[in-house]
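Let us work through a complete example step by step.
Step 1: write down the sequence.
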Amino acid sequence: MRPMRSLLAGAFAAMLSAAPAMAADEPIMPNMGWSFDKLFGTFDTASLQRGFLVYSSVCANCHSMQYLHYRDLEGIGLSAEAIKAFAAGVTVPSGTDDSGVPKDGPATPASQFKSPFINDKAARSANGGALPPDLSLIVNAREGGADYIYGIITGFTKAPTGFKMQDGMNYNKMFPGHQIAMPQPLQDGSVEYTDGTNTSIDQEARDVVTFLAWAANPELVERKQIGVRAILFLVFMTGITYAVKRRLWADVEH
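Step 2: predict the structure and record it as tokens.
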């Protein structure tokens, strides 16, 4: 019985000693205070458009957004003419010719965002076996949402001394286990903003995460507005109900 107690005590002590190390290894989630997270929050249109530029210039080389169509870009403030012009510069599968051979043609506003690879096998082959996730709903699909995605994008750094890296992996302080197949996607000056905004990694990350948050929740602002109206209506009706009750029962003896 005593050996068993000693074994359990030793295991418990080991767990206690490992707890501080595990806590120290836990990544700290950034708190960016996004404009769209607030109760009456909205999306910054300029940031949305800059974020789309970052996505289309950098992220779209590996990541698809299969649930978006080019016409959806009206939601970030692009005009119908600008959307049509952008889509026309993208080549997508366009049915078959008279001989039944598949052909490509310019996209239209009704086209889905073009995927960088024809299928998952091609995507894995081009990325050392790793499958780049679709970004359409990535903000909703990851715990921590926009803060987590921002943390991943900006979390690339040199691995600590003694940390053993697997072949083809990159160190990221936010990613669970700290080893991620994706190389650092953004650099200072990765894109050129036409509005003169500074193109630091931090700014590019903020903008592209704002765009991804919109892509996952394009109805967010409208939903919040409906919620506010519903609350105001309920408050108003509560007041009316109370006033009616007071009037009806005013002459009743209690």
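Step 3: interpret the result. DSSP finds eight helices and four strands in the chain.
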